User: Fold these one by one.
Assistant:
Number 1:
Amino acid sequence: MVLPATFHFEEYMATKAIKVNKALDEAVPLPEKKPIKIHEAMRYSLFAGGKRVRPILCLASCELVGGDEAAAIPMACAVEMIHTMSLIHDDLPCMDNDDLRRGKPTNHKVFGGEMAVLAGDALLSLAFEHAAAKTTTEKVSQSRLVRAIGELAAAVGAEGLVAGQVVDLSSEGKAVDLKELEYIHIHKTSKLLEASVVCGAIIGGGSVVEVERLRSYARCVGLLFKVVDDILDVTKSSELGKTAGKDLSSEKATRRYPKLMGVEKARKFADELVEKAIHKLSYFDAARATPLYHLAYYLADRQN
């Protein structure tokens, strides 16, 4: 793949993030009428400092297949709403029981457990409402919109994110092998990242072949994200916004690649996943694929 000589990745990410943040701010405004607190709780976590990787992947894949970025903005927002919901619920005392997220007190620590549950529920329902109501059918056919919404729903359901969370919880205190660990990571984290890419490609008008190639790319970078997360958890401090080594010390099943295969082998596995992801992009126009190429390396090289 011959990439453009210059590509300002940081500028690209910052520009896309600004667009996503503006759209999210408009999608989840603070209303004047009650109950204001639920919207405050939703916005607290939604604007808690995320890098917007998933919505940016959605926009990049849309543009890669020749689609209009504006057409994918509602879906990109929906993806981030669902991602935020998953973080709020994951941090609850009955789940991973975390006090910090992105270096800030978690939602339930600020608003209470009941409100945190409701904030997550509200974001989940709003995500689908927003994608359905705000995606213009002048640019996106109804059939493609339905396909994309179905893809997103499957990613977070009983065979997606929820499945990963269930197996994660049931594995606490038990020995977990690499196959089981991969299942947890793919379902709990990678499925939504995969949906981000696939939904963008569907909205952008990608062919079946293009969508499936991008799905393969996304599966690689989704697992890559968690492998790197595992490595950082044992090599970094609270730069992650959580206490480093917490999951390992508590014998949770998450973040165990370094424990099961060692840090160096985990890093080698991450390198292999990057290579596989990049190979899937070789079938596309190099200029259009450049953002996804750099995003793969960004996820591999990130330090927080």
Number 2:
Amino acid sequence: MASGDLAMGVVFLTQTVVGILGNFCLLSSSLCLYCSGCRLRCTDLIIRHLTVANFLFLLFRGVPQTMAALGFRHFFSDLGCKLVFYVHRVGRGMSFSSTCLLSVFQAITISPRDSRWAELQVKAPRYTGTSVFLCWILHLLVNIIVPVHVTVNRGDINMTQRKKFGYCSDGNYERNVYAINSALLSFPDVLCLGIMPWASGSMVLILYRHKQRFQHLHGSRPSRRSSAESRATETVLLLVSTFMSLYTLSFTIHIWWGVSGNVSELLVYLSALTNASFPALSPFILMSRDTNVSRLCWSRTSPSVLRNM
């Protein structure tokens, strides 16, 4: 085994283990609050599905990629490769869609009662489950085309035109077929990429206007409410900027991968690393701004208080 492969294997292993532990902590915290009877927000259901999606991606992409980098490259059958690719694509897409829903529902939640969002603010909790369910259905259907061209790596056939991932390979696409498949698979992600900045920008504007009104009425003295607003703003901005940065990098690598005739192993590793970064980092971003103590305190406060992330 080359020293470079060993180093990448350690990096993948660290990223996967840390990501799984982070998502487990976030999911267990959310479930504990649910079972304890605390007042939960409509976004809590979205967060739980986000962690499940992250789990799926890290288990079905991070673990196989780690094993491949460490030299264990022939441990899947054709059916195993197809299943692994399908599940990790569904998990990746659902992770992004859940983050998008989180931004939209949070923007609706903190909007003033006299705004155009007032009616949606009342109805939003009832549509949370339906929205999450439809996202799962969308990604389960869209990614059906993924396993069609995925096979196990074989040494007895011509693999020069296939994209190798270390443990499985993908190809051979005609140019037109590749373009159609890429557009179909990228559509949900691009849609999220357009909605999330809009929702987050609306949220920042709402919080800024509220802060200006509060300072005008009560002076510049800091308050618990303004602190909550700051945490909410920072959380959304950090989550969205992380999503957009990593997606842009991943999309650039994907395009480069598509037009390149000969894909290097380094490009495969870089693609896997960037794709797994958001599922691994997102739980820590959420937990860093939303402690159990603040959540338990929220369960005892008035519903009219601004709910932070």
Number 3:
Amino acid sequence: MAINIDTLPYDCVSKILSYTSPIDACSFSMVSSTLYSAANSDSLWRTFLPSDYDDILSRTVNPSILQSCSSYKHLFYSLCQRPLLLDGGRISFKLDKCSGKKSYILPARELSITWSNDPMYWSWRPTPESRFSEVAELRTVSWLEIKGKIRTKILTPNTSYVVYLITKVSHRVYGLDSAPAEVSISIANKVQNGKAYLYNKYEDTLFYENQWKIEGKNLMIEDNNENGIQVPSKRDDGWMEIELGEFFCSEVDEEVEMSVMEVGYRLKGGLVVEGIEVRPK
């Protein structure tokens, strides 16, 4: 026997919708007035927030940006659209708008960067494009090594995550595209290794294609992704990201280690590091 959902108790409808996703709830809200009320209720959107959201909000650097949130739905989308700086700016937090799962960015200062405290090799400076107070810029080095760590207990359990190095390059970039870096993700006894170029001089492919067409030449650009070598890709925030690997976050608290290493004898410089992001796949 078919049951009209409009005849079900309001709490029952909200409970059913809680087993869907935020994006599904928004779609259901357009079906009927009953679903509209349930799909916009505080009781539903509270379930889409992380169970530890109170603790997360208590650690924010600027709590005033959340004072205008008039409902849990408003709070949810604020956390999706505006990353929060937590713990004095030592980490950035954000929610995925489709799933409500947590993502974090570790700033460059929270990473282990070989020789980063030696001004001969690295410089630290603020930049208005960054969400953090400073970024690390590589001056010149032959041994490039960047490492980061994060505990899975702060992530969303039973979720696949992907790790990205967030970078830019300065006008004086050199040596970063001569050889791919070794990248790895380690969790428990599992290690995932790969390779990635830290700079792609043909990142603006359309510009080069148009320029070479004007000159009557053909441009051949190798797709290194097909060879298993990652290349930088553009982000919505204006930075570039390089995939380091992925891992599965279970319900057991474990430490995840991320690593980027390019230790050839060739000198390189001009890499600007903002941090490492861990976000749902």
Number 4:
Amino acid sequence: MEEDHRNGGVLDAVRASTEVYLMKCPVVVAKSWQSHATSSDFQPVAKVIESIDPLRPDDKKYKMEMVSSESGSMPKSYTLNRAKQIVPMTIFSETNQGKVAVEGYVGKKFDMKPYEENIEEYGRLCRERTNKSMIKNRQIRVIDNDHGVHMRPMPGMVGLISSTSKEKKKTAPVKQSDMKRTRRDRGELEDIMFKLFERQPNWALKQLVQETDQPAQFLKEILNELCVYNKRGTNQGTYELKPEYKKSVEDAGAE
């Protein structure tokens, strides 16, 4: 135990020497694991398989198998691409009562991707999520005793013209670029991106901003994960899907 001077309590460091894996996983996997985390009955959700070649012992291969039977159409097998270099990191946890504990140190970092035999299945799942995200559920709510509070002009709305004015003044329309764009859910935006790349293989950042109506900086974060940027050639200045994602999109186009 070590004293935590910030909270005036005690920092539990019993598991500080425990090795922990840090994984970057697809949204469907993260949601599945989060649903199990809320359960009081602890059950393993996946197992990691480490393969070693006797002739090349340093060249280890990693694979993950989902053990949950409630995963539905979610792929069961994933490849784990291990990062060669990682920044030293420590994992902390905090309870609702404010108790802080060290859960271990990050010994390995992985990028989780669907196994080769599940690429087509994963592509189909992404398309289903994209179609669902495009459906907008609108609701009508009746406001009682409002007295016009919610009818006041908001920033960016056309100003009111005095009824005594004899000349009608034309108001300039608000440009789309001047309006603040709201970020979508990350998983929802990834689904939309896959749908766009089904339509055509190469996109410029400006085109994607117009298609998705998302902030350019946020869009770049997603593009850096899913795509490669063409710095030269006939498609210079455009993005295209990385090979591991491109295969699922091409399969979807064939259907």
